[in-house]
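Exam review. A common question shows you a sequence with its structure tokens and asks you to describe the fold in words. Practice with the pair below. Do the first one on your own.
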Amino acid sequence: MAELAAPALARPGLDPRLLDLRRIAIVPALNEEANVARVIAELRAFDPGLEIVVVDDGSGDRTARVAADAGAHVLRLPFNLGIGGCVQTGYRYAFEHDFDLAVRVDGDGQHDPAELGRILAPVLDDEADIVVGSRFAGSEGYRSSRSRRVGIRLLSWVVSALVGQRVTDTTSGFQALNRHGIALFAADYPHDYPEVEATVMVVKHRLRLREVPVTMRERLAGRSSITAVRSIYYMVKVLLAIFVGIFRRNAVPLEEKR
């Protein structure tokens, strides 16, 4: 069996350094029965050696069943925790099962797994602990609604000023993390709309953060829960949260020293 599996793992385009690492794809999903099977298939096409874990955040549809039928391991939450709790569940699983490398790809199909190579490269080169795929770092393509883009740019300006480095896309969940990043997010991950606060938390813990340009797609099916009104609410709420967060002595008591 090992001789049959090896060619698939070494398919052209896959960085051979990945083959020595235990690697996991975390896919948070809420009511994504129409999208999740394709996301899983695209992840397998990129790297057949990935363990794919779909975290079903209390979906009311067949998300969990579709994901399991597509070959993913499913963590089914008993009720909706929100994106922060859902994502942290995935990172806790990755940490507790000793994975060396994790990628996060959302279950709505907006993240193209074919672009994971460029997101993984700075981690594999030991240039970053956490790498984020950014819509605003030079790529073209789908960039969400105008109201959301304005909010994202304002948040990026504020966060860049706080952390002392340029951050262009603070709401992107398209990410790759090494063991240090997995440990941080497994111990503590902001809830509600977490990515902005998580960016600040990463830099506070002196982990190395990088962005790489990616092109994001429109969701494959269904509708986003983020309306124009909710975008304004989100922006105000997150701005308050990050200013409160900078006065916290430690986001989490990480004892492990780099």
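Now try the second one, then compare your answer with the model answer below.
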Amino acid sequence: MPVLRYGVVSLAEIRDAALGSVRRRSDAAKFVQELAWRDYFQRVYDKLGDRIWDDREEYKTGYPAAYAPTLPDDVRDAATGLPCTDGFARDLRETGYLHNHARMWLAAYLVHWRRVRWQAGASWFLCHVLDGDPASNARSWQWVASTFAPKPYLFNRENLEQYTDGRYCRTCPLHGRGPFEGTYDDLQGRLLRSVPTPPGTDPGRRGASRHDRHETGRRQRDRW
């Protein structure tokens, strides 16, 4: 919300309003949790200052130094030929807003499919998103990139199609043979040189299951 970005209201005021508008506090628990993440990111920003733009960890993709420093023109101009990424880029430019799912998908496409440094994408977002908080924005891009997370965030067409009701996939000229086709194992094999095993998981499993990744994305989606 822009009112949060510019300090018109505080996180505590938003929290109290949310808790006061529901009969049961548990109904507002998820929203309050996301406010807590925003507060945490701001505290990290307060500690790091401009270092918020530095990688906190190495990329866990097997490509530590293979990322371009600038945003590709076709992504900025919504001219990739992919209805989804072009639609997201147009919405970003024309409305100053993207649903949190779309923010994650566009970030993942830029970092993992196009191999562009997350800083280029994060700077691009801050030029357009009306609710763009520098701390949440930078931390969330790093979460997608895997420089502030145990593994990279990826998505596939099934995930995109499910959460957009097929809006983009129905008109995609590459439907069935596009860059987002396949299982998560397929995508990991194509996009990553290494597949990290997060702490607490079975080392015999090759990456996370579809359910695991969807749940991780669901928990993350409101932090931008």
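Model answer, second protein: The chain has two domains: 2-50, 73-220. The longest helix spans residues 29-48. Full marks require stating both points clearly.
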